[in-house]
Amino acid sequence: MAKKVTMQKIADHLGVSKFVVSKSLSGKGGVNETTRERVIQAASQLGYFTQKNAYVQSIKRPLQPADSDRNKQSVLVLMPNIRSQTQDSLYWGKIVDGIALALDQEGLGMVIVSEHRTDNFINILNPNGLLGLIGVGQISTSLLLEVHRIGLPMVLIDHEDPLIPSDTVFANNTDSMTRLSNHLMGTGHTELHFIGNIRYSRSFRDRWIGFRSALEENAMKTPAGDDEMLQLEGMDDGTFDESFKQWMQRRKKAKSLPTALVCANDFIALTISDVLKAEGFTIPGEVSVTGFDNIEDATRGVPPLTTVHVPKEAMGRAAVEKLLNRIHNPSAPLEKILIAADIVHRDSVAGPRG
Question: Which Gene3D superfamilies match (predicted)?
Answer without folding.
Answer: 3.40.50.2300, lambda repressor-like DNA-binding domains (1.10.260.40)
